[in-house]
Design a protein that fits this description.
- By secondary structure, the chain is α/β, with parallel strands linked by helices.
- The protein has 2 domains: about 140 residues, Aspartate/ornithine carbamoyltransferase (Rossmann fold); about 150 residues, 3-Layer(aba) Sandwich (Rossmann fold).
- It contains 13 helices and 9 strands.
- The strands form 2 sheets. It has a 5-stranded parallel β-sheet, covered by helices on one side.
- Strand 6, helix 8 and strand 7 form a beta-alpha-beta unit.
- The relative contact order is 0.16.
- The structure holds phosphoric acid mono(formamide)ester (CP) and norvaline.
- Norvaline binds next to helix 7.
Length: about 300
């Protein structure tokens, strides 16, 4: 039976820990330029309906370094769901390739792709979630702290795909997670309720970012207008006043917190240059770890 990675909850807690251990191992191998090629003669189709830097580069480089070949399919190549039905392209690609990575608008499309593909499908971001990112982020936190105990993460900004993935992670690993967002920009209600019901983590929503960040180990933010919402950018700048992660917001944690952002960052909007460039910022570690954690995920999907 092939396995997909579409949501963080597709893995058990034990598997997530296993993936982090594997990521540590593959990261070391990469840094030492060891010959590690479990995917010789394998190909990965990467479907992009949205732009990307990190996701494309990390998957393509990572898979190549593990011996495989990755094909970049740009937004105009496939036009998923427009030029051709999702269920058709799923079966076609699976005849040529060993694995599919897809970055799409519609989450239903990635679910359909996985349903019809006979090879594993990895979700490289949809409007609903971004599981690879949050796996890499938690691994980055583990590297920096040495453990994941008593972790308070405060996300400040739009209750978007990044937040939905944190809420899924909160169903697998215990943490205190606060989403501090404007009232009209909440995360997905069902996902939030599922995280609450799972009873493993303490998840909450706040509309008072300065108060919410008190005691935070991690302050995390993301763009206020995600891909597909860029025409709302000006309106959102008005509605997100008070939610910028600036130096005063970082100081309001009252402790030596770390700053995280999935990137790309809009400096002067959701955060500022001095925070991104500060000692607290671990944004480039997050970016690097995308590759190592994704490689560990691919290895897991192939039982390697
Ligand atoms: N963080 C992230 O997914 O970056 P890209 O959109 O550049 O892939
Ligand atoms: N929320 C952002 C994340 C980018 C990696 C977006 O969807 O555009």
């Amino acid at each position: 039976m092939k396995r997909d990675f579409l949501h963080i909850t597709d893995f058990t807690s034990a598997e997530i820990h296993e993936i982090f251990a594997k990521a540590t191992e593959v990261k070391k191998r990469f840094r030492n330029k060891e010959n590690f090629k479990p995917f010789i003669d394998h190909t990965m189709a990467m479907i992009f309906a949205k732009p990307s830097a990190r996701t494309r580069i990390s998957f393509e480089t990572g898979f190549f370094r593990m011996g495989g070949h990755a094909l970049y399919l740009s937004p105009t190549d496939i036009s998923i769901g427009k030029r051709e039905a999702v269920k058709d392209i799923a079966r076609v690609i699976a005849r040529y390739n060993d694995i599919i990575m897809a970055r799409l608008f519609s989450h239903d499309h990635v679910l359909e792709l996985a349903r019809y593909s006979s090879v594993p499908v990895i979700n490289g971001l949809t409007d609903y979630n971004h599981p690879c990112q949050i796996m890499a982020d938690m691994f980055t936190i583990l590297e920096h702290r040495g453990n994941l105990n008593d972790l308070k993460i405060v996300y400040v900004g739009d209750g978007n795909n990044i937040v939905n993935s944190w809420l899924r992670l909160a169903q697998r690993l215990p943490l205190q997670f606060v989403c501090a967002c404007p009232e009209d920009y909440l995360p997905d209600e069902t996902t939030f309720q599922d995280a609450r019901k799972a009873g493993l983590s303490d998840v909450s929503i706040s509309h008072e970012p300065k108060t919410a960040v008190k005691g935070a180990d991690i302050v995390y933010t993301d763009v206020w207008a995600s891909m597909g919402q860029k025409d709302e950018a000006d309106k959102r700048k008005e509605q997100f006043k008070g939610f910028q992660v600036d130096d005063a917001m970082m100081a309001a944690t009252g402790k030596e917190s770390l700053f995280m952002h999935c990137l790309p960052v809009e400096r002067g909007v959701e955060t500022v240059d001095s925070v991104v460039e500060s000692k607290a910022s671990i944004v480039f570690d997050e970016a690097e770890n995308r590759m190592h954690v994704q490689n560990a995920i691919i290895l897991k999907l192939f039982n390697k």
